[in-house]
Amino acid sequence: MAPADKPVSRREAVMRLGMLSGLAAGAAGTGIWLRRRSRKPEEPAAAVVSRDLRVPPDPAYPEVVVVSGGEPADLVRAAVEALGGMKRFVAPGDVVVLKPNAAWDRIPEQAADTNPEVVAETARLCFEAGAAEVVVTDVTCNEARRCFQRSGIGAAAEAAGAKVVLPEDRLFRRADLRGSVLGRWPVLEPFLTADKVINLPVAKHHSLTRVTLGLKNWYGILGGQRRRLHQRIHESIADLAAFLQPTLTLIDAYRVMLRGGPTGGNVENVAMEKTLFGGTDPVALDARVARTYWGLEAAHLPFLEIAERRRLGRTDFEAVSTRVVTI
């Protein structure tokens, strides 16, 4: 394996981004000199920062848990406990990024965004495990400040002690994702430098991909013109899943948007399920949730089959070690 292909630590990622900034600054200075001679400077190379943030497998714990019957905070705490506790995933001093779906200017009852209490309880558990900092962020579709306010995620995260980072232009860094569709692309910096990343999607319908769950939630790390990716959306989802392999995934199914996604708005399309799916195999999690609420198999969801071929997880979730908990 070439050095550029190896997962890197937060320290190494920060150093690489610093070097990239230095290259950019140098290129800018060189550009002035070259323009005087009617020559065009070359674009600096994009940083390659593979983000494999998974923890080692442990046969003592299931790969997937399904918890139902409680309120959002109870569901999170029970799921994490069943998976071995947050200290299995977060070490003292870690900087942890939580990635909810905060894309839309909607209230929690509309289920377009992750439930704010799921985000807050996850942050609290990270601090209990010794995290030095917990960052909550997403590259939203509607105006970011309004999305974090109306969804309740901003206030809930801050009340739990987390730092909410809005996707300002200055915070994007161009990275080479080295995917089949995604090459050089602007990525929100916290995802490039965090010690751990926890994916917190909401389970809901999507007009293009039929569902949006854990793997589709990674669209929210990208800047730029994301609509360009819709022509090959399944490949781009798999590219993102390969680029950023999370420490933990917790899929919020407290309320599930069964139709009208991804923007939603009609509460008649929302079912109260009071459930949360968690685990370390993001492909198996997506496959299980897709069948549970929409009756969809992996064959209906090409991005899952592509992800499995890339060995990012298993679509045959029934063969994955699972624990079901009722509160």
Tally of separate helices: 9
Largest sheet, described in full? 10 strands, mixed
The count of DSSP E runs of length 2 or more, i.e. the number of strands, is 14
Weakly predicted, low-confidence segments: 1-6, 19-43
Order of helices and strands: HEEHEHEHHEEEHEEEHEEEHHE
CATH architectural grouping of the largest domain:
3-Layer(aba) Sandwich
Distance between the termini: 45 Å
Full CATH superfamily name of the largest domain: LarA, N-terminal domain
- Structural domain tally: 2
Q: What value does the average pLDDT take?
A: 89
Shape: globular
Q: Could you name the CATH class of the largest domain?
A: Alpha Beta
According to CATH, the fold-level topology of the largest domain is Rossmann fold
What does the model show?
It contains nine helices and 14 strands. With 327 residues, the protein is an alpha/beta fold. Mean pLDDT is 89; it is low at 1-6 and 19-43. The chain has two domains: 1-45; 52-326, LarA, N-terminal domain (Rossmann fold). Strands 2, 3, 4, 5, 8, 9, 10, 12, 13 and 14 form a ten-stranded mixed β-sheet that branches.
Concise account of the structure shown:
The protein has 327 residues and is an alpha/beta fold.
Notable traits:
327 residues, alpha/beta, Rossmann fold, 2 domains, 10-stranded mixed β-sheet, two-stranded parallel sheet, 9 helices, 14 strands, 31% helix, globular, disordered N terminus
